[in-house]
Amino acid sequence: MKLIINNSSMVPIYEQLVEQIKGMLVQGELAADTPLPSVRGLSGELKISALTVKKAYDALEAEGLVKTVHGKGTYVVGINRNLMLEEQLREVEGMLENALQRGRFYGLEASEIRELFEILMQGYG
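and the corresponding structure tokens:
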């Protein structure tokens, strides 16, 4: 499992792990019953605290995406990928709505916001 930690990001490391693992679930890279790396193994591989990995796994378990079997490990639970994707789309929509409201609050015109969005999108192909 390839996970990348951005130490200069303002996003906490455990949240980075959660989001990347969720992305792998949505993309179908992790199927039901797939074991996740052990907490110690992943923390050693990424050179981060085992508590950080545990916190990420706990967050995923709270969302019903993984199940931890004491003494055996943490496994992917069968998920409805379409439902998860829909939730993620709603989250992004909310963030974009917030950005639009803030831009309008600061006095930006719709054309300026649109232009800024297009400039930012160029960086994402």
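(Above: one complete record from the training split.) Strands lie at 66-69, 73-76.
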